[in-house]
Each structure stands twice: as structure tokens, then as C-alpha cells.
Amino acid sequence: MCNKYTITHLLGDAMASISHIHRDTAKRVRLDLLNSLGTENVPNQWMHFMATVRQHLPEVLSRGRPTKQAINASVIGALGFSSWRELLEAPTDAGGLGLSWSTWRQWSRAWAVVQKYPDLERAPLTAAEINRLHSDAKAASVAMPTDMAAVEAFWEEQEKRREIARAETHTALKARVEALEASLSASRVEAAHTHGTVIELRRQIDQAQIDRKQAEQRLTAAQQRHRELEEKATQLQEQLQRSQRDNQRLSEELRARRNRSFWQRVQEVFSPQ
Length: 273
What we know:
Blueprint: H1 4-37, H2 45-56, H3 58-61, H4 68-73, H5 75-78, H6 84-89, H7 101-116, H8 127-139, H9 148-259, H10 262-270
Helix pairs in contact: 1-2, 7-8
């Protein structure tokens, strides 16, 4: 019959044995994950890695974030890591997988597409090609290609569409350039016409200034002539008045002579002056 100490000792040994086995299992899982990453440049090698993750760590691919308790009880916790990201990004010489988080996110998105279209799991496509294929098919509003024959046909059709788009863009750009050149030519003609108009207006302004100056000179000359004529008229008027006075005086003298007697005229002739 076992005492209390014996039972406790046996339970401790059993737990230690279970934990040791768990760590060994975790190491084997990590080795499988590293091997699934491969060393050769195989386009769909990432799919082998994702399939290995699905096999050993299905909770990593499930929706939602696993609890701390679930992490500790999993291979991740057994390897001494507190999260899948920590295990993923840790260098291989530190017990991790040496894979960037951005790469994992890209692979996860592509893997979700592959799970929706299982025939693609055997296709020699990179994760980036899967993601681009899915995005392009959605943008083109066409069914997602589910095998390589359909993928290649889709890519060929996409290339044709791009060629058409490039041709249309080239045609549109050419038309735009031609329109701009025509507009520029018209602007140059208008500018030349405007320049000619400005030159003509300047010529007219210069001529008008010359005409105004000449008119001012003629006006000044006319005013001077007017003053001279007025002065001449004044002089003539004064001469006329003097002549009138002289004529009046002579007329008076003549009348006076006529009214004198014969004897007065004889005396006037012989009287000393």
C-alpha cells in the first residue's frame, strides 16, 4: 500500500515525464516548420509551411486570438515563447523560425484564398501572386480562377486589358497633347495679333501726340497773329483818328480862309510868319 509521500512522488515523476515529452514534441514540430520553409527557390514553398502550421498549430490559423493559457499549453509555450509572433520572428539560433511578421501576414491572406479554392494549393504560385490574382479578379468582377489553366488564361486576358488601357491612355494623351499644341498655336496667333494691335495703337497715340503738338503750335501762331492784327488795328484806328482830326482842322482852316475878306487875305500873305 502506497503512502502519501509515494503517491506525490509518483505524480511528480509523471508530470515531469509528460512535460519532457511535450518539449520534445514541440522541438520536433519546430523542426518540421523549419524544414517546410525549405531552402530552394520554389514558388509555392510557402504553402508547405502553411500546411505544416495547419497540421501542428491549427489554433494559429483559426479566427480570434488564442488565450495565454492556450499559448502556454501549446507548442509555442513549450518552446518558451509567449506568442506565435514571438516564435515566428525569433532568430533560428534563438529557437525561433526567423520569419518576418509582414511575410506571415502576406502568407496568411494568400492561404485564406487557397483554402477557399483548394485546387490552387498545388499551383506553383507565390503568396504575392495569389493575393494579386484574388485582388485583380475582384476588381475585374470575374470569377476567381481555380486552377493554373484558368490562372494563365486570366493573366493573358489581364495583359490584353492592360494593353488596351495603355493604348487608350496613349491615344488620350496624344489627343490631349494635340489639343494643347493647337491651343498654344492659337494663343501665339492671338498674342501676335494683340502685339500688332498694341503697336498700331502706340503708333496712333504717337501720331495723335504729334498732331496735338502741331495743333498747339498752329493755335499759338494764330493767337500771336491775332494779337498782331489787333495791335495793327489799334494803330490804324489811331492813325484814322489822327487823320480825322487833321482833316477836321484843315476843314476848319479852309472855312476860316474862305470867310476872310480880301484885305485880310492880303495881310496874311504879306505879314511875317
